[in-house]
Every structure is written in structure tokens, then in C-alpha cells.
């Protein structure tokens, strides 16, 4: 007998995917202000990252775990750029996050 399409399995899988996606989004979403991991998406962005952070009122805290990335402190709206990815910096992914200078 051919196994027919079962909407209940599809709906359960869809709901599970939405829940996992929502939890992932909430976990990785950068704070409005605070420590964030900035990941450059191109070589040009990588060379400009430190100066851009400083120019936009942010502070470099330490180098990130990915090549060219930095853990920074600042405001998300000021630091957000099309060629950079901002995600929440947590101790699990970034190690100990130093306190920012006042």
C-alpha cells in the first residue's frame, strides 16, 4: 500500500520548525545596546570593521572567534551595516566578555 500524504505529520513538522526557528532567532538577536559579535561578510568589510565601530560610537572589546570578527559594545542601530552580521555575544560562543571602558 502506498503511504498517503498525512497532513498531521506535515503540520507537526512545520510547527516544530517554527518553534526552533523562533528560539534560534531570539538567541542570536543582538541587544539594542550591549555586547555583540560583528562578523564581516567580505574582505573589504573586514578591513573597515575596527574604524567603522569607533566612528559609530562603539567600542572594540576583543577579537571574535571567526576570522576578522570582533566582540563590540555599542548601539545596534548605529553599528548595523549591510556588509556586516551582528549577533548576540554570549559567553558560550565568545568566551569571557571584558567590561567596556567608561
Radius of gyration: 19 Å
Structural class: alpha+beta
The proportion of strand residues reads 15-25%
Strands of the biggest beta sheet: in what spatial order?
A: 2-3-1-4
Q: Which residues form runs of ≥5 with pLDDT under 50?
A: none
Account of the protein in words:
This protein is an alpha+beta fold. It is built from 4 helices and 4 strands. It has a 4-stranded antiparallel β-sheet. The termini are far apart. The mean pLDDT is 82.
Summarize this structure as a short list of keywords or feature phrases.
102 residues, 4 helices, 4-stranded antiparallel sheet, elongated
Please outline what is shown here.
The protein is α+β, with helices and mostly antiparallel strands and 102 residues long. It has helices spanning 7-28, 43-55, 76-79, 91-94; strands at 33-40, 59-63, 70-75, 84-88. Helix content is 42%, strand content 24%.
